[in-house]
Structures are given as C-alpha cells and as structure tokens.
Amino acid sequence: MSNKKQTAVDWFFSELERMQYFIGNDMIQAYKQAKEMEGEQTMDVYKKGYIDGECNATDITIIQRNL
How many domains does the chain have? Predict the structure, then answer.
C-alpha cells in the first residue's frame, strides 16, 4: 500500500512489522479496534459535512485521506 493511500493506523502497524516488533493476538486485536474506530470517525465526518452541512477544510482532508 502506498503512503499516499495508507491510513495512519495501517502505517503504524506496518512500521511495527518493519521494525520486527512481535505482533501477537493483543496487537492484532488493537489493530482491528483501531481500524473500526477509524471507519467510525470517517463516517462521522462524512455525516457531519455532507448530511448536516457542518464540514470544514480539515474534515474534508480527513475524508480524502481515507478514500
């Protein structure tokens, strides 16, 4: 995955693997939880900006990074 399309969560766990940190069950669970939270945050921003009309430039940048 390229850095341009890679989310912060994906990058972080890729770096842990690259640095040869052991990724056991606890880390896998943390990764899954972080990805779920990331998805919820993206949906919250989308709802706020495009449904409620309250989106600002920072929110749009977050949405674009997660597409």
Answer: 1
- Structural domain span for residue 33: 8-65
Q: State how far the Cα of 44 lies from the Cα of 14, in Å rounded to an integer.
A: 26
- The structure's pTM equals 0.54
User: One digit per residue, pLDDT tens: the chain, 67 residues?
Assistant: 445 678 888 888 888 888 877 767 788 888 889 889 888 888 887 777 776 666 655 655 665 565 5
Listed residue (63, 61, 64) closest to 44, CA to CA: 63
What is the spatial distance between Cα 53 and Cα 33, in angstroms, rounded to a whole number? 28
Q: CA quadruple 53, 54, 57, 60: dihedral positive or negative?
A: negative
In a domain, 2, yes or no: no
